Amino acid sequence: MTGYKFETLSLIPATWAETSRDYIEGREDLVVNNYAQYCSVVRTGIGKSKLILGGEVDALWDAKPSRIDDPINWVELKTAATPLSDRDVLKYERKLLKFWIQSFLLGVPKIIVGFRSKDGILQSLEELQTNQIPKLVKHKGKGSWDGNLCINFTANFLDWLKSTIVEDGVWRIRKKEKATVIEVFKIEESGHGDILSHDFFTWRLRPEQGHGP
After folding, report:
1. Helix or strand run (H / E) with residue 41
2. pLDDT tier at 213 (50, 70, 90 boundaries)?
3. What is the pTM of this model?
């Protein structure tokens, strides 16, 4: 079972009461669609750095809150091979690191993992609280990574990045596979790499926004 198929079988487009019985029971025959998704945009901080992050999220546990300031019960769905050996457990722990980083940064409180056989058959489910994953790895797993170490490294890296990128232009951050260094270098003397639209860039520089000359 692929991750997209797992999502198709697990999710419905509205609340349970608003979804027809035919749709609920017919999900097994639905064509997989990876287009439908939510986007979580959060303002957060790591160390001395303030960040605005956006990323795709799979689902809501219930429904969006009516008050905009209330937290959203996001849920992320993942799949993994059922661990059958110590090597498999270590491989799963490394996957958990990726699961945790993604959900931790986007404020997703819950992750549901579907374990599949070598033939792709769903065998079991595990519900994880995102903030408990580092403790799970440390106390019940192989201890292959440390959440605090990851956060401290990221904080130091962001501090170093801000001291390195002190000019305008488009910069690239690159770490080659199996490399022990992270490269940072300029690829364009001006511009914004098409990450920001021209309209947004123009709006941001207007004097009334407080960022213009």
Report:
1. strand 38-46
2. very low
3. 0.84
